[in-house]
Amino acid sequence: MELNTTDYTFRLLIFEEFQILVSWAAEEGWNPGIDDAKLFWNTDPEGYMGCFHNNKLIGGGSIVSYEGLFGFMGFFIVHPEFRGKGIGEKLWLYRRDTLLSRLQKDASIGMDGVVAMQPFYKKGGFEIAFCDERYERNGTTFEINPNIHKITQSDFEAVQEFDKLCFGVPRTTFLSQWLFSVNAKAFLYKENDTICGYAVVRKCIKGFKIGPLFALNENIARSLYECCLNSAIDEAISIDIPCSNSQAMQMVKDYNATYVFECARMYYGTPPNTMTDRIFGITSFELG
Asked: Quick check: bond before 119 cis, omega within 30?
């Protein structure tokens, strides 16, 4: 099908259209979480852009703003029928520019780019900060560290502050849902009433994903990783590791997790002040 510039339009998605985008992601093997559509949408209902041909959705992606301080682009997908026609490039550039208009001056944008697309993203102004690698293994029984307990509403404010130090910017709306989703379990590591780490493991179409896993050090991260593995016995559980954190890389190797694929965290502008040495598992490739 040949298209010209008058054949398609860009606009924000409504929730039902975003659900279509998530279903395409599932068909592509991206394995979204069971509740991802609802959780992602509620984080920023104006954060999802679509490309339409004759009022039919043919592509889209996220342009999520974290309180105007930081943006994230993900969920970039064009329906197979419309690939190879230059639509994806125009959609991606439109999303980038629209997201920039939603952010404060000098705020940066993050994204996780697959290897094949990284040269294109670089042309669009993004630079690689570090590589991400996904590792997977089955859940199994572990003795849980007594410093770990499930996160409750009373923990929220303290967890939010810890998350901000690791992630670099506040994400209150996102966390208020992510931590308490019906199909997720969130664990907190505390010593002397001080938060030293936390992790979330959520049910996906196939198996489970851990994200984030933030911890002050490797020993705490390993305890949280074991807790997540213990939460879904015999199920496939994946985690996305920033390769710049050598302790995180060693952790997944010591637990005999299998390499699946890689991409790279890239930024447009000055990256937020994240504590990569505390990031043993990123939250998601879709929202950062």
From this structure: no
